[in-house]
């Protein structure tokens, strides 16, 4: 294999990896390829620099056409927002254990190029992992999902806050292609790097980074309060260590200001009389359930947003008793007093 061809193979593999992380528009693919060619560009002995390389639109089209030829339409495709996606998770349906074994034989006996061999080993590991994931998903498919597809499962009547459809569409597109947006939230304008949307019981929240250079400058905005959103067409680099799921797991409810973002070691007591009902719930992703000698349960976890925790405990009609921290107990008492005072009036 020639060195030039090997570079193009590496670039294609890198593009596939990037597309699996985030969808890309044609312009973003062009920018990505330009960066890749520069990184693997020729060293200019006269100037001591790497030659610049500008990717043409034709090169982008050839790369897209090449991927379309190699992968099925449900693996590499253009989404509703005009961006290309690469979903290997739908691919393993066509792969068997024998296919992976054959790939293993090729890796061991036929490939002499060390770099290509490593790429194939990585591919084998990914295919094996995806195959197991798909197989497990098929075996444990949610009953709810089956009912939804057959139209026998619907969401019951509940209070909902409607958000602007144009705002939703703009934000979803910007999240997919990692573009900065200018939002008007509660009358104030903010330029933010959108990371995702958290769905809460009563509201949806935009999660965004306020300062691109500071990954910890994360803030959440109530979607109902966002009156406008403008895609600025400026790409931002997302922190690869950020996970929406991990971010959500650190909370109880959704924090919306500095006070609700404070973290606490939470403890509440579940009396014996409702133990069998409460044990069916996962109150928090990192909870500890400790049986006590009197038959009751102690629930502990680490989270923020005491107000949301207190409101949730209220939903149990006094059956669950808050124990710690002291701030949670006080917040719970304040809510109960507010409710009682409103009835007295």
Labels describing this entry:
42% helix; 345 residues; four-stranded antiparallel sheet; 11 helices
Strand count, sense and closure of the main sheet?
Answer: 5 strands, antiparallel
Helical percentage: 40-55%
Output mean pLDDT: 77
**Helical element count?**
11
Structural class: alpha+beta
Spatially, the strands of the biggest sheet line up as 8-7-6-5-9
What is the end-to-end distance? 84 Å
User: Total number of β-strand segments?
Assistant: 13
Low-pLDDT runs of 5+ residues are: 1-6, 137-141
Radius of gyration: 26 Å
Beta-strand content bin: 15-25%
The helix/strand order is HHEEHEEHHHHEEEEEHEHEEHEH
Write down the overall geometry.
globular
